[in-house]
Design a protein that fits this description.
Elements (H helix, E strand, L loop, with lengths): L5 E7 L6 H9 L2 E3 L6 E3 L6 E7 L15 H10 L7 E9 L6 H19 L3 E6 L11 E6 L2 E4 L2 E5 L6 H6 L5 H22 L26 H8 L5 H24 L4 H26 L5 H10 L2
Antiparallel strand pairs: 1-5, 2-3, 4-6, 5-7, 6-7, 8-9
Helix pairs in contact: 3-5
Length: about 300
């Protein structure tokens, strides 16, 4: 049975890690960290089945050929950061379906790398690893190491949007980080299922986390401190009840929305959202014409609120 596993982590100096070191380990190569002078030699690894650097499609004409050199790419990423606790790379660790053959797994890894490189404007260094001797022989997995900064023809630029914090994401009109990662999981599952279907395999994966009983694993709502203390003393809290009720309603709405989206492509979902928005604006315009001058300011107020 195909399983879904995706873990997104960061490579940071605060943990004593470096971008060249992380890249050397995953690609099974010997790389020198020019910043520290340390040499990382993993050239004796025998489990690296495939490795490849993917750049954003806008740079596919060779304008950033410097980034195809692994040592140059990751030393540039290391030297672009100046704080001692900087995040120098991001890693996406994904289990690849053992039901696919070697060529199909490479094709899937390229699809995933292309999606992330284009979406965030970063360089994506992919390495497919074979199962470890003595371990589960179905455990083919992909290490996708990406720069934290957008890549350009002559170097690295600003931090990519996935690296931004809550306040800056809000200012730019971007979704919350948690929603961004949920979307990433859903897209990844879609790509995997498309690869399984193209290989004429019946298995499918589900990006929703599940617990040991097969139920979707969800977090618990955060209670106000006073309500938490009251319940800890064995007292009943109306506030805690209301928080839990609202949280349960949001969870049901999210699950219903995800179930409704099953079987539809991302392009279909985006198109339907766009059409719904256009219908809504057309309806507002029609109401404004029917209501006369006193309603003329309503669309402007709506636009102003949306821009906050």
């Amino acid at each position: 049975m195909a399983i879904f596993f995706l873990r997104v982590t960061s490579v940071g100096r605060s943990a004593g890690r470096s971008a060249p070191g992380a890249a050397a380990y995953r690609a099974g190569e010997r790389l020198e960290d020019a910043r520290s002078g340390r040499i990382y030699d993993y050239s004796k690894r025998q489990d690296v089945l495939h490795k490849e650097i993917t750049l954003p499609s806008k740079l596919s004409n060779g304008e950033a050929s410097w980034a195809q050199n692994r040592a140059t790419l990751w030393n540039t990423a290391e030297q672009a950061e100046h704080r001692r606790n900087s995040r120098v790379a991001r890693e996406y660790l994904l289990v690849l379906p053992h039901e696919l053959d070697a060529g199909q797994r490479i094709s899937l890894s390229r699809t995933l790398a292309r999606d992330i490189a284009d979406r965030y404007g970063v360089a994506a260094d992919a390495a497919i690893h074979a199962p470890r001797p003595g371990g589960d022989q179905r455990n083919f997995h992909l290490h996708l190491l990406t720069t934290t900064r957008e890549i350009h023809t002559d170097g690295l630029g600003l931090k990519s949007t996935i690296e931004l914090g809550g306040a800056e994401r809000y200012d730019r009109g971007l979704p919350r980080s948690i929603d961004e990662f949920r979307s990433l999981r859903q897209r990844t599952a879609t790509f995997i299922n498309e690869a399984l279907a193209a290989a004429n395999r019946p298995e499918r994966v589900n990006h929703l986390a599940i617990d040991a009983n097969g139920q979707e694993r969800t977090t618990r709502p955060r209670l106000p401190w006073g309500a938490y203390l009251a319940e800890a003393r064995g007292l009943h809290s109306d506030i805690a009840d209301r928080v839990r009720a609202k949280y349960a309603a949001r969870q049901r709405s999210r699950v219903f929305s995800q179930n409704a989206d099953q079987g539809r492509s991302l392009a279909d979902i985006r198109r339907e959202a766009r059409e719904s928005w256009l219908r809504m604006r057309a309806g507002e315009a029609s109401k404004g014409r029917a209501g006369g001058l006193e309603r003329d300011a309503a669309p402007l107020a709506a636009d102003r609120d949306h821009s906050l």
